[in-house]
Amino acid sequence: xxxxxxxxxxxxxxxxxxxxxxxxxxxxxxxxxxxxxxxxxxxxxxxxxxxxxxxxxxxxxxxxxxxxxxxxxxxxxxxxxxxxxxxxxxxxxxxxxxxxxxxxxxxxxxxxxxxxxxxxxxxxxxxxxxxxxxxxxxxxxxxxxxxxxxxxxxxxxxxxxxxxxxxxxxxxxxxxxxxxxxxxxxxxxxxxxxxxxxxxxxxxxxxxxxxxxxxxxxxxxxxxxxxxxxxxxxxxxxxxxxxxxxxxxxxxxxxxxxxxxxxxxxxxxxxxxxxxxxxxxxxxxxxxxxxxxxxxxxxxxxxxxxxxxxxxxxxxxxxxxxxxxxxxxxxxxxxxxxxxxxxxxxxxxxxxxxxxxxxxxxxxxxxxxxxxxxxxxxxxxxxxxxxxxxxxxxxxxxxxxxxxxxxxxxxxxxxxxxxxx
Length: 421
Fold this sequence. Notes:
Oligomer: single chain
Number of strands: 11
């Protein structure tokens, strides 16, 4: 996708003196509007490296390995508990070295969601982070503010308790709430499997760093039946929410599992939009382009998920008529007379990107759609242009007569005369 009109948009934003925050601002505002339609939303935070080691870009810094050059991206990605992406509401971008502590991004991320929660009283915001977000400063900030936004953190510190003992053994010593079962998706080095977990939960008092304590609920989900030869999966979560029943704990586990959606966003950004192939001279221009592609990556993820959750919606909910018709025209097929379903259009577009649509193929993924959508969008624009031309809306573009060239009517008359001879 680099080299297409989206990079021209980045160039225009750069010439107008816009920062990447300016470009992202209207998208954040629209995301807040979408958030108001849901009683609970999950604000997922995570960090990814963008490796531009082969590019000559001013302002980049070292990554995990000193030989690598690039930058870091840390967005806040909002999804519903049903995993429907709503877009981006916050982001950090930086190259090392940074003037402030990099860990500050987690605390500031919660503070911004707490502030947003005050503007959205009808929506409960749950801040979700992995192990790197398990910081005393973040917990202190949340409790000092009164937890206007909930937090759900993957714990990495087995804290000492004021009354003695360690956090994790204390929670596991409590009677289990029960068991849950779900399908654990496969990863590169692990096939998908049926996961059964035993849940423990207990509210404890943790040191607040100022001589007092703060109440924190710890939920531990331990795999009951790991496959032979594999280590049992164990998730340890910290939250401000009360957990009394198995249903309370199971809900938190479901919410934490939604954290994988931000990994999907990063996958689309890097492998679908191919942002690491961008060739720009300065990090400021790179940041503008990354923000634009970040919104595009959300759009692809949103479209894919919407097609799976609500496959029978009419395509007109998402696509203009010329947009969905273009998918049929590119395949040299006659577009249907009636508006097709969203699933039908998504599958038809994905077939342009290599999706075979066989019975056992399931639904197309975001990477396939990313390959196909540019062609479909270009065809839609061409179709719109042709339609406008046929209606005479673009006649001014074709009626300019060049010197020495006969008008269209004169040329036709001359041709008729020659034929009669």
